[in-house]
Fold these 2 entries.
Entry 1:
Amino acid sequence: MKKIVILDFGAHETQFVARRLRENAVYCEVLPCNIKIATLWQGLNNAAGIVLAHPLRGKNAPDFDKKILEIKLPFLTVYFDDKKRGGRNVVNLPDMHSKTAAAELTNFARKTCGITDRWTGKEILAACVAEAKEQVGKEGRIICALSGGVDSTVVAALLSKAVGSRLNCIFVDTGLIRLGDKEKVIKVAKKLKFNLKVIEAEDLFLTRLAGVEDPEQKRKIIGATFIDVFEKEAKQFKNAQFLAQGTIYPDIVESLSPKGHVIKSHHNVGGLPERMNLKLVEPVKFLFKDEVRVLGRELGLSDDIVNAHPCPGPALGVRQLGALTKRDLDTLREADLIVREELTKAGWYNKCWQAFAILLPIRSTGIKNAKRTFEKPVCVRVINSVDAMTADWTRLPYEILEKISSRITSEVPGVNRVVYDITPKPPATIEWE
């Protein structure tokens, strides 16, 4: 399939260039500007055109541009400021959310580059399966980290199609999971006929996380501990050389930046140890969340799986802020379940993209049974998004918020206050840690 290659020179909007192209069924790949020339040449296989996405900078383009100009392909230089530059096919796109930006990029892909292929669910599935088969070979066995979320479930279904019985799924009970998650994974695995093993590792994770408050350190510890568990279990299977993860493109964007600016280290990207015995298989790592859902439907997965709310791999580990304790995690589990239950009862669960509770590491004065309390607050976060790159808070009816607050403060011990997060992404991230 023909594609557009987007070279990232550190522009924050680079991912939006990719979004606008893919929304118009044009396949594209993003390559960082600091890659080796040999890697660039390889990345240009089947390329029909190149987009140079530049952030605000001086008049002189990086020397790397000169190499690009030697390539006999159409190219479009995109600047994110109010001054147009000289050159061929230069366009100024200050607002990547505008219809003008989408039209300019689509016109470049379809007319200038002559791309007629359409990036649909069928093409996504074929490409992902082919890539997985080539990477794993005819003898390799894959250990798949299955959390029960849409990303890891789609990856497991895709790899099952690619390698059949050579796929073994593992669910790790870290002690950080939500109520009902383990039961859901077991049910889904049985329905889809996955080979599944459940590992009880609560003591291991909570011991390693004891006293750790920094979110980045938490994510790195969780990521490294996951790898330790998977590598230990891989030894039980002959020729298990690969570890499959449900890494998606937003995870990479936030964890690794061409300019070195990390928003947060996702446990499955920036949280991984430098040395691993297993080779990573990440068939959806360049897909956005909505594309993963399209792929899930193409694989025949049911709506309850495809439309499930996202939950990060560290789960409650990054939703109970500060140092983790089993008591606080249990408190958060109960509050989180109430949020999901009330949204479901009110018919709002499928109207929002993600909903969860956060336990804050502070205390406030309250009143229960005519007595003073000094307990922790819970923050409720409900947002709408398409691809997790941007998000807006959900305008829930006050009646639902009132019910959630009433139930949490009356049913969950240790909580006397509920607040609602009305901050979009950006400037906030979806999760608090």
Entry 2:
Amino acid sequence: MQLQDIHLRDPFVLPDGGKYYMYGTAKVTRKDNATVMTVYVSDDLFDWQPIETVLKIPDGFWGTQDYWAPDVFLYRDRYYMLITLGAPGRKRGTQILVADSPTGDFTPLTDGPITPPDRQCLDATLYFENGTPYLVYSWEWLETGSGKLVLVQLSDDLTHTVGGESILLSAAESGISACLQGEYEGKTVNGYVTDAPLVYKTESGKYLLMWSTFSQSGYSIAIAESDTLRGVYRHREVLFDRDGGHAMLFKDYFGTHYISFHSPNDDVERPTFLPIEETDNMLRLTA
């Protein structure tokens, strides 16, 4: 099937072994006592084949719903999936699963989420610097009013956090987020959205924070910058404001860098790939 025929939110592309594996938020099913999701595999980024991927979630496990925004990384010869889960009576959080293949079977690395269980969190991903793993995640606006993007170091085996956290950005102070209304725990709340954080280090050593929010133009992808990894990130520019977001970056086998995101942000969303490059300490679309 062609990319435009795939119904998928939050597309994440992992190049591995000469192929491309695309994960994202889609319907999951139960099959043979396992949770099954679809991963799309391609040789060329144009034609894709759906493959059933098994998540072996044990009975009684804390996360029973949502299954949002899976990001998959090859790390120390294994494949680690960070996926946002929820459950009645539990705060939403991101769980790390692990497998020996990019198509599973994926099993929980730990008994609970890697994000703080006392916070409503989502969209956690990994960033590596000098071999050290870091977790970057969104502390959800429904709970905090102003969504926050948080960074914390992880242990080498990715099972727990190390040291203190850093608040990189607060949506209400970003200068671009519009105030939205939602419902949380049976109450109407107002606030500012942070989705899908991603840290990128430029060739000159500047740190860029890519994230998604609702601006006056609708769902958008923004970039903030800092001179240090744990610094306060200041808004630099809006990269895309045409009703698309939840972005990630990947490089194809010919050396071209792409941004991947879903658009439009409604029930007919499709994965979108656009070429992107670093220019003057900034990421810019080239098409």
